[in-house]
Structures are given as C-alpha cells and as structure tokens.
Design goal:
By secondary structure, this protein is mainly alpha-helical. The protein has twelve helices and no strands.
Length: 303
C-alpha cells in the first residue's frame, strides 16, 4: 500500500534509516532489495515519523512520546520534542505504533466479551476474524503502513485516508461507539428492523447504526415512543411535510439534535458515542429528504 503523504523531512535524513531497514530485511545484503521493496521501506519510515509527528501535535504530547519531557518522570531520558533527531523521532514513532497495536489487542479483548453482530456477516467477519488476523500478521518494522484488512463492514466515519495500525485502531473505536449505541435498544427490535429493511440483511454491506438512527429520528420527529412500533399512513404524511419542506442542511441539524438528545437520555455519553454518530447525520438527512420527496419514507422508516 503506497501512501500519498507529504513530508517535511529531507531525503538525506531518510535514506540512512531506509538503508538500515533494507539490511535488516535482507540480512545485511541491501543491494538485493527491489525498487518496489525499497519504496515500501521508505513508506515504513515515513509512517513511523508521521506517527511521531501526530503525537507531537496532540494536546498530551509529552506523555505520549517515548523520551519526551516527562516532567521529572523516573523513566529517564528527558528529551525535548524539538531536539530529537530524525532517527529518534522514527524510533519513538515505532514505539508508539507498538503501543497502539497492544491497545488494539486490549480493545478487541474487551469487545469480544460482549460483542453483538446481530447476524450481519460482514460485521462479524471484520471484527471477530479480521482484526485477530491483523494482530497476527502486522509488521511494525518493515510494513507498518499495511492495513492487511479490507474492513468490509462500513462505519459512519470515513477512514479511507488512514492505513496500518492507525486505521484499525480508529475502526475499533468506531465499532466500540456503535456497540454502545446499539445496546440502548433491545436486540429483538434491531433484528426486526433489519429484517424489515432487507430480508437478506445478514449478507448486506451497510452500516447498522445508520438504519437504526434513521428510524429513531422518525420517532423523535413525531414524538412517538420507541416502544410504539410501526408508522401509520398519517404519520408518514406528517413526516413528509416536516422532512420535505426544508433544506437538507436544516434537516441535518434536526438529525444532529435528535442524536444528541437520544444519546444523552439513554447512554449518559462521555462524548465519544455522540461524536461518532453525528458523523453520519449528513448522510441520514440526505436519505430522509430524498425518501420524503419521492414519497417513499416507508422504505426508510420501518418500525
């Protein structure tokens, strides 16, 4: 996987690191490395440097970066981020990646104890089969930029610019948020909703939360209790008037407010679930507006 990532590092700073990686990869015979592999090793170096730079730009820089200014921490070597050499930044970035892989492992273990896939094969396969394979084959030294997985089950957030451990970590964060949100509802309700949406839902490649959210927003707009299942013709007409009479941007704000209200009421959210769900508000607003305009809200609001 090739990364389209700009860098402020000079080639003469990077080549010694790439050469060392090549020697380690071939057993000291760096001349046998193909052009493609040399390019991949360059990407590996840049990936680790990017990991370091991303941490250095965060609010909690020193606690995240190995060898950073720990304010007298007993772990030793206090080195200012600005004073680090490119080699030190590369090594620090690699250590951050190792820590992230360990965090992915712990997140997966925590998820597995209470994971619910609702019978959706792509969700089960990606989390329960794919992530363990990632942990088994991920190569922090020679190919940290390789995501290994295709991450087939889609999230509400766009991860297409991410790769490697960063992508898998962000993906599991999204899955954690989804699992918390979906746990607000009875499992039978969600399965019934999915069946109404698509009888072949077990094989679908769509996000469960988007389907549940759209239905929930319909209830909120009508001030209809969630336990009062099913929409009547008159309710669809009322929703068409509410949803189809404004702009998509206005409807998106309605969806955002509905998400915040729902999460606050049922989850006591720490912010992560709400932030994740709000990322899907725009797509839900577009789908609702289109369905209302075409007179097909019954295809979106189901239960």
């Amino acid at each position: 996987m090739h990364m389209d990532r700009k860098t402020n590092y000079k080639m003469e700073e990077l080549l010694p690191l790439v050469s060392e990686l090549a020697q380690q990869y071939t057993g000291c015979d760096s001349t046998s490395v193909t052009y493609e592999k040399a390019q991949a090793l360059m990407e590996a170096v840049l990936y680790c440097l990017h990991e370091y730079d991303s941490a250095a730009g965060s609010n909690d820089t020193d606690s995240m970066i190995p060898g950073g200014n720990t304010g007298g921490n007993k772990t030793g070597s206090i080195v200012s981020c600005q004073d680090k050499t490119v080699r030190e930044k590369y090594e620090a970035g690699r250590q951050l990646l190792l820590a992230k892989v360990d965090q992915i492992r712990r997140m997966l273990n925590a998820l597995s104890g209470q994971f619910e896939d609702y019978g959706v094969r792509s969700l089960y396969d990606t989390v329960q089969k794919g992530v363990p394979e990632f942990l088994k084959w991920y190569d922090v030294r020679f190919c940290p930029q390789d995501t290994i997985l295709t991450l087939d089950y889609p999230l509400l957030v766009d991860l297409h610019t991410m790769c490697g451990a960063d992508a898998v970590y962000a993906y599991l964060c999204g899955i954690q948020a989804e699992q918390r949100f979906l746990a607000m509802f009875d499992r039978g309700y969600i399965v019934s909703l999915l069946e109404a949406y698509d009888m072949e839902y077990r094989e679908m490649m769509e996000n469960i939360c988007e389907i549940v959210l759209a239905n929930a927003i319909g209830h909120l707009l009508l001030q209809k209790p969630f336990e009062d299942k099913g929409f009547q013709k008159e309710e669809y007409r009322r929703l068409e008037q509410m949803v189809g009479s404004g702009q998509v941007q206005e409807l998106e704000q309605v969806v955002l407010n509905g998400i915040r209200q729902m999460v606050k009421q049922y989850d006591g959210d720490d912010g992560k679930v709400c932030t994740y769900l709000c990322a899907g508000a725009g797509a839900i607003a577009v789908r609702m507006e289109s369905a209302a305009r075409m007179g097909h809200l019954e295809h979106l609001l189901l239960l």
